[in-house]
Design goal:
Blueprint: H1 3-10, H2 14-20, E1 38-39, H3 41-44, E2 51-55, E3 62-67, E4 70-77, E5 80-84, E6 87-91, E7 96-99, E8 105-107, E9 115-121, H4 127-131, H5 139-149, E10 157-160, H6 166-180, H7 186-202, E11 208-211, H8 213-230, H9 236-243, H10 247-258, H11 262-280, H12 285-291, H13 297-308, H14 312-317
Parallel strand pairs: 1-3
Antiparallel strand pairs: 2-9, 3-8, 4-7, 4-9, 5-6, 5-8, 7-10, 10-11
Helix pairs in contact: 6-7
Length: 319
């Protein structure tokens, strides 16, 4: 990020001065009038505005809270540690974090050189960006649909590791600059820039992490159902195409959510099916090997022995 912006964002705010002077905790009235800590967009956005940026408040732990708007956090320098719906997320320079309206967030104290920018965004700001994204379904579009419709059960946050992607860094910096310095035509500029940012992020879905138990369950269920039905001739690339996900991103997410690679899950299913046929049919071993999707007999024998400690013939005889 341009050093002029870093200097501006590093200036100690009045809120931070109060904390450094000994105030314990945040001043909740700056964020909401309610007893429950739900940060209110009306406290942070001027009337009629759809988006604003503000430096992340340092030197204090921000207790568990929610927002009634969409928050996007960009890490300029240093790090910040967040707990979102129980998941630890550590933002590093260049990272982007999208939070929907109902995600629960807690933030550990940041130091003086830990500089982050918070975008406060009303859902309708994304209308133009959403229209630019086409018809293909993906996790990013699902997130936007949830924010626009007020249905946020699926994905509570999206976390992008994109420090090395120059177009994304430039687009974010352009938005910060335009809003921070009050440039002309900034609403149209920023809505178009947000659309371009989301289109760029679609090219880097392999650098994205999501946070949602329901999303995890649905993704894992879809993968396992596909393997159940297509264990003989299915492929990860076909599955990714069917689900409208980047193949590398899907491969990583399968490993993260199941502890196994797609290949390991597929092989486990094929072996289980081979055992079923060995025990419940009179098919020859050669026919069984072909029926479960293997065309390399020696490979099948080796993997079967690794898994069960005996050959297929010995397994059948031992029944």
């Amino acid at each position: 990020m341009h050093q002029e912006l870093i200097r501006e964002l590093s200036v100690i705010t009045e809120e931070e001065k109060s904390i450094l002077d000994g105030r314990q905790g945040i001043d909740q009235q700056l964020y909401t009038e309610k007893k429950e800590l739900i940060v209110d967009s009306e406290k942070l956005l001027k009337r009629g505005k759809l988006i604003e940026v503000r430096p992340h408040t340092r030197f204090v732990k921000f207790p568990r809270h929610r927002h009634n708007y969409v928050e996007v956090i960009y890490m300029c320098q240093g790090t910040t540690t967040h707990y979102i719906d129980g998941n630890e997320v550590v933002l590093e320079p260049g990272d982007l974090l999208f939070l929907n309206q109902n995600s629960e967030q807690e933030i550990l104290p940041a130091g003086e050189t830990d500089i982050a920018v918070n975008f406060i965004i009303l859902p309708e700001f994304f209308n133009m960006a959403f229209s630019m994204m086409g018809t293909e379904e993906n996790a990013l579009k699902e997130f936007l649909v949830g924010t626009l419709c007020g249905k946020n059960e699926q994905t509570s946050y999206l976390y992008f590791h994109v420090a090395d992607v120059l177009p994304i860094q430039n687009l974010v910096e352009n938005m910060v600059w335009t809003i921070f310095y009050g440039m002309g035509n900034k609403r149209s500029c920023n809505q178009i820039t947000m659309g371009l940012l989301l289109l760029q992020l679609l090219n880097y879905m392999d650098k994205m992490e999501t946070g949602s138990s329901r999303f995890d369950t649905e993704l894992t269920g879809n993968v396992l159902n596909y393997i159940e039905e297509h264990y003989k001739d299915g492929s990860l690339s076909e599955l990714a195409e069917m689900m409208n996900y980047d193949v590398y991103w899907l491969s990583r997410e399968i490993r993260k959510r199941t502890g196994k690679t797609y290949k390991e899950l597929l092989q486990a299913k094929r072996m289980n099916q081979a055992v079923y046929l060995l025990t419940s049919s009179r098919l020859s071993i050669a026919d069984i090997i072909g029926s479960v999707g293997y065309d390399n007999t020696s490979y099948f024998y080796r993997k079967f022995r690794e898994r069960y400690g005996v050959s297929p013939k010995e397994y059948r005889k031992g029944l």
